[in-house]
Amino acid sequence: APPRAEKMAAATGRAAGEAPAGYTALAVKFAERQRSAHCLLVKEHQVREGADTAHPPRRTLFVLNVPPYCGPDSLSRLFSRCGHVQFVDICDKPGPGEKKDKLTSKFFNHKTVKGFQVAYVVFRKPASVQAAKALSQEGPLLISTESHPVKTGISKWIASYEASIVDPKELKAEVDAYMQDYDKKVAEEEAKAAKEEGVPDEEGWVKVTRKGRKPGLPRTEAANLRVLEKEKQKRARKELLNFYAWQHRETKREHIAQLRKKFEEDKQRIALMRAQRKFRPY
């Protein structure tokens, strides 16, 4: 019987060779001391012709089954032997990959991806994608090495806690930059609206804006209450009275009850007046 190490190597080779149609299996290990290997499923990323995407075709490697401990830096280092890696985009599921016009925020809109993920590795040259697929012929690739260790356990928690501490100066600088861009965008929209005000379009229509003789109501609490009261009165006037037969019967029944009540009240008042009447000849 072959030794245990040979059995493990044979099992790793069989696992690496088994891949879905269109994919290539790459064996990776977390560290040298790890015995079992993990398989990354890779293929050339393909998109519809003319699609606007951040992952250009022919230069992007699509990677499935990415473990949680394998981040963008680890993937970039793994595939850097195949060519220059421009960037690595890790997602929780495959998507169109819209272009990012601006840099992502360091403090806001951070989404933590849990569990196994998918990745898009964008190379500078198309030949690097084929070279990355050819790595399946080599032995297992190491994710954590002595020169580039991946933090785990208490060291990872410490690094995560240190990264969660916000620098007030950096936060203020990012917020100020965002507000400057926002004010600039609003000013451009207002200038464009002022330029197009009163100018008919191709079909002859003129766009009416709020900046006319009758501007919008101020959004105060009293104004909101008045608007709500007017809407309530308008709805009350629009209600259909006696629309159904049962509503008509109920209305008649209530009217008859009110007439009977008024008749009894009138009888009591007349009886009281007769009792109080006295004969006074002089």
TrEMBL record:
InterPro entries: Nucleotide-bd_a/b_plait_sf, RBD_domain_sf, RRM_dom, RRP7, RRP7_C, Rrp7A_RRM. GO terms for biological process: ribosomal small subunit assembly; rRNA processing. SMART domains: RRM. Residues 60-153 form the RRM domain. The keyword Coiled coil applies. Keywords: Coiled coil. Residues 249-276 form a coiled coil. Pfam families: RRP7. Belongs to the RRP7 family. This is RRP7A protein. It comes from Orthonyx spaldingii (Chowchilla). The gene is Rrp7a.
